[in-house]
Amino acid sequence: MPSSFDLAVTLQRETSRMKRRSKVIRRRQSYICKSHEPSQEIPFDLVIEILKRLPAKSLIRFKSVSKFWSTLICSQYFTNLSSSPRLYMWLGFDNEKILVSSSSSLDLDGSFVVDQDLTISAMKGYSVSHVYRGLMCFTNGTSAQIYNTTTRQLVVLPDLEESSTIARDHKFSKIIFIYHIAHDLVHDQYKVVCIVSRRKVRRRIVKLLLEHWVFTLGGGVSFQWRKIPCPCQPHSPCTRGLTINGRMYYLALVPNSIKPLFVRFDISSEKISVLQKPENAYWSRYYYTEIIEYDGRIAILDHADLVRNGVMELWVMEDEEKNRWSRKTLVLHPSQLNMIKTHIVQNMRLTVQGTTRNGDVVLAPQHIFRTGPDQLTVLTQVTTLFYVFLYNLQKNHLRKVEIKSNRYNTKRWDVIGFDDIENLMHL
Predict the structure, then answer these.
(1) What is the distance between the terminal CA atoms of the chain, rounded to a whole angstrom?
(2) Tell me: the pLDDT tens digits for 272-313?
(3) Burial of residue 195 (number of CB atoms within 10 Å: 0-12, 13-18, 19+)
């Protein structure tokens, strides 16, 4: 698996080759300022330092300077250096929804400020299902689109025409589509994973059908979905999932059981497997459980008792192969618990919307209604005050952060995710 160091070495070699070429050109010309390639006097580290300070619009133009610059600017190594963390929100105006974002660099008074409107006409009728590394997935039933929030490029994904689960009679069943964007570290490709689950109930017998599909983004790739065999028992994902180190993890439900599965999907090999859960961890209230990243590792946060008692349970995976976990019980200070109870009233709960680089978990308020034995309905907020809570797991500290916007005056809003990448790849 190529690391950032390996990529940096490769780019340095390419730079050295270009320097030697520049020397030959200088022998033939007395003036070489017209050359677009890095000159001998500019060290490679300085070139990187200059480029990463430029805005995305400038970097997009500079991709056409040379093949080397295009490779560098679009590389995962450079993308990680030039990140600009953002918080994304849906805002509702009557029957219309818009997408806005706020820079996560907190203002002097400790608030986020809405500074971008990312709405495009193609979003009408769609909902956001996933935000990952500057890419956003919009869905409407079986239709899905991928939107690059940096380059503003939009790609409409093909339909799952060969799905036998979708093609069958839907009269006594409900179909759930889960879309997830992930990065293949081995082949340096972005992929969209679609999990299709169909729950069918007849005479109190629950039957579940399951399919996994993968679509590879980027030029030169076959424009079609590929069905991935799944050796696991049929299940329905109950968390959005998290991708880390080239693997996607999620919790899933199986029929007639309250204990969720812990599933891993390897993005490179496209193999699916069920992992062991930590001992004495049941997570029966799965809608209060989310997989997060904790200090570069997979962790599972159970915040079922956060609003009532200010208590959360955190399981951190220390060794995946040996199924070794550590467990921490986090207890809020009474003043922090009172702050939550002041804002979170009946039929409201906090949902995890991502983790910042500083280790803060983004907790967004939502209205939740139970509409079935295993089904919840989520409604947007009904207040003009936009805010989230940032909870630092290592410091065990929670704070409220307001989201300021002078342009938008609406009572319908919802935080849909946190992202920390500006992505310049071509879809």
Answers:
(1) 23
(2) 999 888 777 766 566 688 899 988 899 999 888 888 889 999
(3) buried
Contact 342/332 with Cβ under 8 angstroms? no
Q: Would residue 17 count as lying in a domain? A: yes
| Residue 372 belongs to some domain of the structure | no
The whole-model pTM stands at 0.77
Inter-CA distances, 276 with 10, 101, 223, 328, Å: 38, 37, 35, 19
Measured N-to-C along each axis, helices 4-28 and 67-74 cross at an angle, to the nearest 10 degrees, of 160
**Structure tokens given for 276:** 């062991």
In a domain, 24, yes or no: yes
Report how far residue 23's alpha carbon sits from residue 44's, in angstroms, rounded to the nearest whole number.
16
Distinct helix (H) and strand (E) counts, the chain: 8, 27
**What's the number of CA atoms in the CB half-sphere (13 Å) around residue 104?**
23
Residue 22: domain span: 4-80
The CA distance from 287 to 375, in Å, is 10
The answer to whether residue 414 is domain-embedded is: no
Q: What is the pLDDT of residues 311-332, one digit of tens each?
A: 999 999 998 888 889 999 999 9
- Spell out the residues 6+ positions from residue 371 whose beta carbon is closer than 8 angstroms to its own: 377
**Highest mean pLDDT, choosing among 30-39, 93-102, 355-364, 392-401:** 392-401
pLDDT at 38 over 70: no
* CA-derived radius of gyration, the chain: 23
The 3-state DSSP class for residue 322 equals coil
